[in-house]
Amino acid sequence: MDSQPYQPIRPGVGMEENFLSIDDILLSHERLPVRTECVFPRLGFLEKSSDSQDIAEGTKMELPLWLSKGLYERNRKVLSIELPKVYRDGWRTVFNADPNVVDLHKMGPYYYGLGSQMLHFENPENTEIGQTLLQVQLQAHLREAHLREAHLREAHLREAHLQAHLREVHLQAHLREAHLQAHLQAISERSISRPSSRPISERPISERPISERPSSRPSSRPSSRPISERPWWMDIEK
């Protein structure tokens, strides 16, 4: 059986959730500050700071997002959701001024997702929360686009500098080659024009004057050897 490579599933958009997405599963376990509007019988174990078997009305506690959404009803007040501090008016003012000065990951790894899920709960500040989320996300996209553009400009500048450096290296190599050839030619010309200090008889044949070079023709002078030393065939011809 061929195994398919894992491809991460994108989280849901806005108030929707995708429970096949790991990010949405982790987001659903984010804890929210809530206040109970009625008694929760036999659920005292959820509130570790109390020894009572029940959760009394008006108790402030933290519940995961999935449980808060399951218990929340608009028509029947079971519990009320309090805004996390990062979505309150003070932080919204900071985000509206300059969202780049705040590390959203430190404030909450799911700032956009949790903020979108907060719109499920009835709150008079939902409109401002939605506007802040849109503005912060827009500013983040613009900042990312500016950074990408700056990286592209820097890459183009590096490429231009590299090409200029390569051209300079090639030019220097050609100049060195030309200087080397000129130097070798000067050495060869100097060695040819310089007279040799050795005697003519000790010089190579190619360096001797033409008049001092041995002749390659056979000598036409008669042999000065005695007749007795001449070959026998010379006497026969006579």
Automatic annotation (TrEMBL):
Keywords: DNA replication, Nucleus. One of its GO terms (biological process) is mitotic DNA replication initiation. InterPro entries: 5peptide_repeat, GINS_bundle-like_dom_sf, GINS_Psf3, GINS_Psf3_sf, PSF3_N. Residues 188-199, 216-231 have a biased composition (Low complexity). One of its GO terms (cellular component) is GINS complex. Component of the GINS complex. It comes from Takifugu flavidus (sansaifugu). It comes from the Eukaryota. Residues 188-238 are annotated as: Disordered. It is found in: Nucleus. Residues 200-215 have a biased composition (Basic and acidic residues). The keyword RNA-binding does not apply. The keyword Isomerase does not apply. Pfam families: Pentapeptide, PSF3_N. The GINS complex plays an essential role in the initiation of DNA replication. This is DNA replication complex GINS protein PSF3. Belongs to the GINS3/PSF3 family. Residues 21-72 form the DNA replication complex GINS protein PSF3 N-terminal domain. Gene3D superfamilies: 1.20.58.2050.
